[in-house]
């Protein structure tokens, strides 16, 4: 009887995997023997897709810093804004792709690759600017954060456009399905025919591009580049994502939840300022919230473990 139940369970999992294969283009459908193996590997956990996240957030601070320096130095060299902007974005994309190459091709664990690159990029920042701020930059980018389009602030439109593009990529394109699949179970993604290494590099490059956008907005708002730029970006990014409902191990997550997590962090920070609490306590509170949420998540998963 136990063997019969196990066999029925295996058949059910195989049928679920075949249904899930509709997420992928026809040209990447696996062979029948692959589908049987995928049935024992693909993690569903009762959710529609698994979010690939948390493996490369530590690189963000270094990329934002270096991209901001590229923008600042380009301005100091007298380059116009239509050249400065793509330079900052290309710098972020290239650095992100480098991290992706180290992780995907050299097989360096993501936490080591991104942590090491963060220190490398930070060292480059100090070497290039010599420990001094880049200040007095022109305000040609300022309309991105201070301007208005009709009755809407330009910064809100920038955020809306970024989230719309991210939603299209993750929900409407095969590339987004591949990201979910790799974050769920990398071996399963390989078995269904996904080019995992290429997808990883493209994902890291995309994150680098978004870090370049963040650097543009940073320079647009402050018109200078500080030596300690992005000190708490990694912590805030992880906290906002986790507070927004994304599981640190994958399997749960949404753009809307992340947006709400970002809003929560910002509202909390503004509230602390208005109540006169020292900004030094922001990191303490954010870190404590992160530990509490992860602890609650671990306890919940202990009581409701995933089933393959």
TrEMBL record:
**Compartmental location:** Cell membrane
Q: Which UniProt keywords apply?
A: Cell membrane, Membrane, Transmembrane, Transmembrane helix
Describe its membrane topology: Multi-pass membrane protein
| InterPro entries, per database record | ABC_transp_permease
Give Gene Ontology CC terms.
Answer: plasma membrane
Name the source's superkingdom. Bacteria
* Ranges annotated as spanning the membrane: 62-83, 89-106, 118-136, 148-170, 201-221, 227-244, 251-268, 280-299
> What are the GO MF terms of this UniProt record?
transmembrane transporter activity
Q: Major place of localization? A: membrane
Q: Which PANTHER family match?
A: ABC TRANSPORTER PERMEASE PROTEIN YPHD-RELATED-RELATED
Q: What is this protein called?
A: ABC transporter permease
């Amino acid at each position: 009887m136990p063997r019969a139940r196990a066999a029925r369970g295996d058949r059910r999992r195989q049928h679920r995997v075949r249904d899930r294969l509709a997420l992928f283009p026809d040209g990447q459908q696996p062979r029948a023997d692959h589908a049987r193996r995928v049935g024992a590997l693909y993690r569903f956990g009762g959710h529609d897709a698994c979010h690939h996240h948390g493996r490369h957030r530590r690189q963000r601070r270094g990329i934002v810093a270096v991209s901001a320096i590229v923008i600042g130095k380009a301005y100091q060299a007298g380059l116009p804004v239509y050249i400065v902007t793509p330079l900052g974005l290309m710098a972020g994309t290239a650095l992100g792709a480098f991290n992706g190459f180290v992780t995907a091709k050299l097989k360096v664990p993501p936490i080591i690759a991104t942590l090491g690159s963060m220190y490398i990029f930070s060292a480059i920042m100090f070497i290039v600017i010599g420990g001094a701020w880049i200040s007095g930059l022109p305000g040609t980018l300022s309309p991105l954060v201070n301007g208005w389009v009709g009755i809407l602030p330009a910064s809100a439109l920038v955020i809306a456009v970024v989230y719309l593009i991210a939603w299209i990529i993750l929900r409407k394109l095969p590339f987004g399905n591949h990201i979910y699949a790799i974050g769920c179970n990398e071996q399963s993604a390989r078995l269904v025919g996904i080019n995992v290494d290429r997808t990883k590099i493209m994902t890291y490059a995309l994150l680098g591009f978004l870090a370049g956008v963040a650097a543009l907005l940073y320079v647009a708002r402050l018109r200078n580049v500080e030596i300690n730029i992005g000190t708490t970006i990694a912590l805030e990014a992880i906290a906002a994502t986790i507070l927004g409902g994304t599981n640190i191990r994958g399997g749960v997550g949404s753009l809307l939840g992340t947006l709400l997590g970002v809003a929560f962090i910002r509202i909390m920070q503004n509230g602390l300022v208005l109540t006169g609490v020292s900004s030094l306590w922001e990191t303490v509170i954010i870190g404590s919230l992160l530990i509490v949420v992860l602890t609650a998540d671990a306890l919940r998963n202990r009581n409701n473990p995933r089933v393959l």
